[in-house]
Design brief:
mainly beta, Immunoglobulin-like, 5 domains, four-stranded mixed beta sheet, 9 helices, rod-shaped, transmembrane, cell adhesion, PCDGA protein, signal
Length: about 700
């Protein structure tokens, strides 16, 4: 992907460096073909709809002249071309603009040269010249007639002058340093009468065009001295923001004659229509005044030719050169030639976002423009060529951090104070599925009482996705698993949209005490991203089992066969033996245990009885001789009361249930005595036997 971007960048730079040039004659009508622009740019007809070829320029004036056909990609004239209107007296005339193509964004420089045709006739500033010449004027005297104008250039411009044949005058062409040609009337013979001649100005076109003016010469009395200017050339520099009405310069000429012959008046002999609208010459004082505001960007210099003449036909000529200096009065013009409205957040660094053109009509430092971006944004400016800049991504974008950008581009010139302009590029970042869903908790757990209703809500898991739209839509599902041989999905289910976990059956604590399951959250991207969370369900026991007596067995109902007993062993034992075998084995052991206890009890009674009888016999035999048993109470011998007391001391209670953990063996409170109770001694000892 990075390699592809580098290749495209190289192609872009190569294309940007190329220029497409065309040359056409002026005065072509609307719809005239200029050239096959798409073909010259290397675009095929199949590419045109997707590449969206169009023309662009910093100024609207250039755009109005040409248009591109969207179907064939040819460049056509959109408006009549007048070279003189477009470029004035400039020897060369061309229109430059840019051709933009999209997908990917490329720019090409196109230049159309407008060639001059001879469509303008030379013309004099005045149609008639009136000259007064002294009768004593010597041959060879020269009289300035001024200059004819021709808006064409090159060979089509003014080439010379012709004078109608006569015996008094000839015409000579005087060429100045700037290439302009003026006519001077040269006296060949002394005058003795009035005369009128025809003067023609001729250009170099094929066929040639001519302009004509009439010259009327009147003979006057002698005027010995001609006016003389104080300077052969006046030079003045004025800033373009000089106020209207200001006097720029005053020319001065003197005449040595006296009277009317010494009175000098001034006139402007060489001035274009534009100069005549800008400057005014006072005929009496020679002051040149500003009629309207100057604009350095329109014209930075003017050449005026001023003539001083006396009341006769004598005169002098001087040149006034007015240079306009630049003032920083134009802010940079910042134009967005092309831009993107949306960009994917995974666009690689260096992706072109917009193409800008900046231009300042001022000159020098005032016209030097610096462009910059406001704020800390993931974009940078790159200069492509000449006055074009590209806004490109400087690093990767993250829609989850910032979803929209308003990129402000500022252009400031080098003037003091600097002038600036700005443009705002609104850019929306498109989402890419680069974030997996995240659960609100690392683990979920819940306690569920057994015997719950099927379909009961257990808990709700929740996950969020930082992406947008379909990429942020989260759906839930259970991971596969089994519980006691059954599928996990038969116990619980999760609602795909909400994450609610429901019990599909009634839980039994004695069967399942807890469930461990995994819930997966998956977004709607392509490919989808997912994450898992562990859920633990604890089943809470309830008192839902009654105790059962295991022994003695209850007599079976009438008509039933066999003994209906219950097992004493734990439930886990039922994975090891059959129910019938367990019941028989339990009964056998119970009978043996009861029999053994009974035998021991009877044996103990017999032994105790034998010991009592033996003691009694011993006491009976020696009583008459030694009197050792005299005074012993009869109640100390074993009798029926002692036997009853012994039996009562071993009473107990047994309680058995079907669940062996709930079975009990409980002794009564008085059963902890291991000796027979003794009666209190009588008040007086009684003889063991009666006196009889």
């Amino acid at each position: 992907r990075a390699l592809l971007g580098a290749v495209l960048l190289c192609l872009w730079w190569r294309a940007a460096a190329e220029r497409v040039r065309y040359a056409i004659a002026e005065e072509l009508g609307r719809g005239s073909l200029v050239g096959p622009l798409a073909r010259d740019l290397g675009l095929s007809a199949d590419e045109l709809p997707a590449r969206q070829l169009q023309v662009a320029s910093a100024g609207k004036k250039q755009l109005k002249y040409f248009t591109v056909n969207e179907e064939n990609g040819n460049l056509y004239v959109n408006e009549r071309l007048d070279r003189e209107e477009m470029c004035g007296a400039s020897l060369t005339c061309s229109v430059s603009f840019e051709a933009l193509v999209h997908n990917p964004l490329n720019i090409f420089h196109v230049e159309v040269s407008i060639e001059d045709v001879n469509d303008n006739t030379p013309r004099f500033l005045q149609n008639k010249f009136q000259l007064e010449i002294n009768e004593f004027t010597s041959p060879g005297a020269r009289f300035y007639l001024g200059m004819a104008e021709d808006a064409d250039v090159g060979s089509n411009s003014l080439q010379g002058y012709e004078l109608e044949a006569n015996g008094y005058f000839t015409v000579e062409v005087k060429e100045s340093q700037d290439g302009s040609k003026s006519a001077e009337l040269v006296l060949r013979h002394s005058l003795d009468r009035e005369t009128e001649q025809s003067l023609r100005a001729i250009d170099g076109g094929d066929p040639a065009r001519t302009g004509t003016a009439r010259i009327r010469v009147t003979v006057v009395d002698a005027n010995d001295n001609a006016p003389v200017f104080s300077q052969a050339e006046y030079t003045v520099r004025v800033p373009e923001d000089i106020p209207v009405g200001s006097i720029l310069v005053t020319v001065t000429a003197t005449d040595a004659d006296e009277g009317l012959n010494g009175h000098v008046k001034y006139s402007m002999k060489k001035a274009t229509d534009i100069a005549s609208d800008i400057f005014h010459l006072d005929t009496e004082t020679g002051a040149i005044k500003l009629l309207r505001a100057l604009d350095f960007e329109e014209d930075d210099s003017y050449i005026l030719e001023v003539q001083a003449h006396d009341s006769g036909a004598l005169f002098d000529t001087t040149k006034v050169a007015i240079t306009v200096t630049d003032v920083n009065d134009n802010a940079p013009a910042l134009t967005v030639s092309s831009k993107l409205n949306e960009i994917s957040e995974d666009a690689p660094p260096g992706t072109v976002v917009a193409l800008l053109h900046v231009q300042d009509r001022d000159s020098g430092a005032n016209g030097e423009v610096r462009c910059s971006l406001d704020g800390d944004m993931p974009f940078r400016l790159e200069k492509s060529f000449e006055d074009y800049y590209r806004v490109v991504t400087a690093r990767k974008l993250d829609r989850e951090e910032i979803s929209e950008y308003n990129v402000t581009v500022r252009a400031a010139d080098g003037g003091s104070p600097a002038l600036q302009s700005s443009a705002v590029l609104a850019l929306r970042v498109l989402d890419v599925n680069d974030n997996a869903p995240v659960f609100a908790q690392e683990r979920y757990s819940a306690r569920v009482a057994e015997n719950n209703a099927a379909g009961a809500l257990v808990l709700t898991v929740r996950a969020t996705d930082a992406d947008w739209g379909q990429n942020a839509r989260v759906r839930y599902r259970l991971s596969e698993g089994r519980v006691r041989g059954a599928a996990l999905s038969s116990y619980v289910s999760v609602q795909a949209e909400t994450g609610a976990l429901y019990a599909l059956r009634s839980f039994d604590y004695e069967e399942v005490r807890e469930l461990e399951l995994c819930v997966r959250a998956e977004d709607g991207g392509a490919p989808a991203l997912s994450s898992n969370v562990s859920v633990r369900l604890l089943i809470v026991d309830e008192n839902d089992n009654a105790p059962q007596v295991l022994y003695p067995p209850v007599a079976p109902p009438a008509g039933s066969s066999g003994w209906s007993g219950v097992e004493l062993a734990p439930r886990c034992a039922g994975e090891a033996a059959a129910p019938g075998e367990a019941a028989v084995s339990l009964t056998r052991w119970l009978v043996l245990a009861v029999g053994a206890v009974s035998c021991l009890f009877v044996g103990f009674l017999l032994l105790l009885l034998a010991l009592r009888v033996r003691r009694w016999r011993r006491e009976q035999l020696p009583a008459a001789e030694s009197g050792a048993l005299r005074g012993v109470p009869v109640s100390h011998f074993v009798g029926i009361d002692g036997v009853r007391a012994f039996l009562q001391s071993y009473s107990h209670e047994v309680s058995l249930t079907a669940d062996s953990r709930k079975s009990q063996l409980r002794f009564s409170g008085g059963s902890c005595c291991d000796t027979l109770p003794a009666r209190p001694p009588p008040d007086e000892p009684a003889p063991l036997l009666g006196e009889e």
